[in-house]
Amino acid sequence: MEELIVILDYGMGNTGSMLNMISYVGGNAMISKDPEDIYLADAVILPGVGAFDNGISKLSTSGVIEILRKRVLQQKLPFLGVCLGMQLLFEKSEEGTERGLGWLKGEVVRFSNGEFSNPSIKIPHMGWNTINHERDNALLCGLDDNSRFYFVHSYHVSCVEGSDILATTAHGYSFPSIVQRENIIGVQFHPEKSHSFGMQIFRNFMEIVRCSKHE
């Protein structure tokens, strides 16, 4: 049976665009916040657009955090956080006062103009940019340092553990644009808006899910 990917519906992401792209590349996905669907899922995607505090508040209100902890942290269900969904994986954010999920060590910080090598670079970081591979991973199969993705954000993650950084991107300075620890992956860009390169990210994630299911 084809692996089921649940895209979490908590009112903070481009769920429809994500569903369409996964379906386009041959995946089996659904949009849901039903705990039963999460229990049956072979993988979960946490999308996200907007502010950190609002995101974690809506996720908490949706009532899925406990089953996510069980399935992702204990049962090692493949998990992909996108944009704000990646930032919510961390402990806290300069954007607000609420605690994040804390599944990865670190915080979310605002881009600092004072550290930019070129003062004309603007915040937010908006538009197409490349990624630089920091280590090998199945998520990056078929992608190189010329692969371009679509970004929209004023904040970025700062990892405590350097080993969690899978790829970086330069905008004034280098910041983590893909993170990964065991079954948990986060991408700062929007693969659902990144055309062929985004499709490859979803194909690779689907392959990770298949391999995990048959281990």
Summed up:
This protein is an alpha/beta fold. It has 6 helices and 13 strands.
State the name of the first-level CATH class.
Alpha Beta
What is the structural class?
A: alpha/beta
Return Rg in Å: 16 Å
Strand order of the largest sheet: 2-1-3-4-13-12-11-8
Note poorly predicted spans: none
Shape: globular
Keywords:
215 residues, alpha/beta, Rossmann fold, 3-stranded mixed β-sheet, 6 helices, 27% helix, globular
Can you give a write-up of this model?
The protein is globular. The chain has six helices and 13 strands. The protein has one domain: Rossmann fold (3-Layer(aba) Sandwich). With 215 residues, the protein is an alpha/beta fold. It has an eight-stranded mixed β-sheet. It has a three-stranded mixed β-sheet with strand order 5-6-10, with no helix packed on it.
Please specify the SSE layout and strand pairing.
Blueprint: E1 4-8, H1 15-24, E2 28-32, H2 35-40, E3 43-46, H3 52-61, H4 65-74, E4 79-82, H5 84-87, E5 92-93, E6 106-110, E7 125-130, E8 132-133, E9 148-153, E10 155-159, E11 165-171, E12 173-181, E13 184-187, H6 195-213
Parallel strand pairs: 1-2, 1-3, 3-4, 4-13, 5-6
Antiparallel strand pairs: 6-10, 7-9, 8-11, 11-12, 12-13
